[in-house]
Amino acid sequence: MLENFRYQIPIEVRFADLDALGHLNNAKYLTYAEQIRILYIRDVCERKGGAWEALGMILARTEIDYLLPVAFDDKVLVYCRVSRIGGKSFDMDYLLTRQRGDSDKEIAARIKTVMVAYDYSKDATISVPDDWRERMIAYEPAL
Predict the structure, then answer these.
(1) Which end of the chain has fewer beta carbons closer than 10 Å to its terminal beta carbon, N or C?
(2) Rounded Cα distance, 139 and 33, in Å
(3) HSE (CB half, 13 Å, CA atoms) of 56?
(4) Closest CA to 26 of 69, 61, 60, 62
(5) Distance between CA atoms of residues 18 and 20, nearest Å
(6) What whole-number distance in Å separates Cα of residue 44 and Cα of residue 42?
C-alpha cells in the first residue's frame, strides 16, 4: 500500500498533541494531514511563497479511519498523494504510520480530503489550474 505514496514527511509527536489518555488527539490527525498537504502543494505544484490566498484551494471534505493509537514516543511518518483530479476539485489520500521501537511501520490512520480550486478575489470555485494538473499527473504514477 505504501508503494503508491511517493510524498512523505516525518512528524514528531509533541506532548501537547496528546489527549488525557496519552494518545494522539483525534483532531491532530487533521493537523498532520494539513501539514503534509501544504508541503505537497508547495513542492509538487511549485507554489512557493506569497499570500496564503494565492494557493487557491479550500478544504471541502475530510474522512478519517482511525486504526491504531499513536503515543508520544512513536515515530510517525505521514504519506500523501493525489488520487483523483476532477474539473474543479481533487482528492488527496493520506496514510499516517507509527513505528514503535524496532517494530515495522503500521498504518495508524487513513485520511481522505477533497480539495476545491478557489479564486478568493472572486469568492468562487475555479477549474483546477492546468499547471497544477500537469505537475500532479507527472508526479503521481497512478493517476
Answers:
(1) N
(2) 19
(3) 21
(4) 69
(5) 7
(6) 6
Residue owning grid cell 496519552 = 22
Distances (CA, A) of 105 to 4, 27, 34, 55, 95: 16, 22, 21, 32, 11
Cell reading at 39: 508541503
Go through the chain and tell me how many residues it has. Answer: 143
**pLDDT value at position 78?**
98
List the domains of the chain with CATH numbers.
2-139 (3.10.129.10)
The radius of gyration of the chain from alpha carbons, rounded to an integer in Å, stands at 16
Residue type, 17: D
Instruction: Output the pLDDT for position 45.
Output: 87
Residue 114's nearest CA partner among 52, 55, 37 is 37
Question: Which of helix, strand or coil describes residue 28?
Answer: helix
d(CA 13, CA 32): 10
Residue with cell 511549485: 46
Q: What is the pLDDT of residue 86?
A: 98
Q: Return averaged pLDDT per consecutive 10 residues of the chain, 143 residues in all.
A: 92 96 96 96 77 77 98 97 98 97 94 96 94 95 85
